[in-house]
Amino acid sequence: MTATLAGRASEHGRLAIDTEFVSERRYQAQLCLVQVAVPDPEADEGVRTEVLDPLDEGAPDFGPLAEALADPAIEVLMHAGRQDVAIMRRTWSTEVNNVFDTQVAAGFLGFGNQEGYETLVRRVLDVQLRGGEGFTRWDQRPLTAKQIEYAGDDARLLLALADSLQRDLAERGRIEWAREESRLVEASNDERGPERAYERLPKLSRLESGQRTAARRLCEWRERIARDMDRPPSYVVPDQALVELARRRPRDRAALKQIRGLPQQTLHRRGAEIVAEIERSRDEEAPPAPPSAPRRDPAEAPLVSLAQAVVRHRSLESDIATELIATQAELAALVSQVRSPAKDGEDGVRALRGWRRELVGGELEELIAGRRSVVVGPGGELQVEGV
Description:
The protein is of the alpha/beta class. The protein has helices at residues 2-12, 63-70, 82-92, 102-106, 117-125, 145-156, 158-171, 175-182, 194-199, 209-229, 233-236, 239-248, 253-256, 264-281, 301-318, 322-325, 328-339, 354-368, and strands at 14-22, 30-39, 47-52, 75-78, 99-101, 372-376, 382-386. It is flat, with a radius of gyration of 25 Å.
């Protein structure tokens, strides 16, 4: 079946895909269902839709489908596809190329930055989808007829939705902007690791060198246990409790009992392991202190506010979601880069790259550098003019 779908996708140069998964109380999200739609002139409405069950005893071979997703000649249609891409990459060891994300595309056409699929289908295609099944237990079998129907609809209408959005984008000269932004979805992954967990610990900068060593060691231990149990790391030891363990570095079970937030089941079953890991950390080299957050020049604050005003104006003028154009943090980075240029610094400022630079980033660069100014037009609108 997947070979037939992949063949159709190759023949017509596109496929639509969606997944259902369960992530609650798991180390990583579990893929539970895959919905695929491909053009098929012989099928109803010219679309063939299949709902594939990876948990079924007779689950299909997803190899041909994975190859189709990796083929840059095949356009992969998705909606809010970051999690889908991450799960498929991990589960099937495949890349996903040439993504066109309808949620991303909608942001360039006056819809919200994170417009839901059901709402978008209703507004664009005038079709009311059957709801109510999205947060059901997709990992339980057998699935109900309502679940399967709901899942199939998520892929079946993606082709028509993408067609409509792409026509509107082309008319407004924004199709390449949407494709550029959709390509960011392709890099999504949900791989976990002790280093990433360690770096994200709260209050890490307050720990001394020996305490940081203990924190890193405990993160490594926690990841191993969580992976083996298929539970979130926080189920084993919450972040706050782990930091407190690292700060106090208890030497025995009695001292462990004083740690607030340490789950009782972990204390009883793995208390000795925790003490042993902390003891091992005492002989290890400490990781470097985390870098301090860059201190912003107070003089930059009004410039960031000015940049925000220009972005909001361009958002209204262009009908593109403000959040899609630039966040406050990104504008602060832009202001800092323009005022104190760093080597290769522009590469790290999203507002100075690609379609964002074309829409407003280049203009902001000139404005912050003092080569342009902002005036209020007769209608109350902002105007950026040359100095």
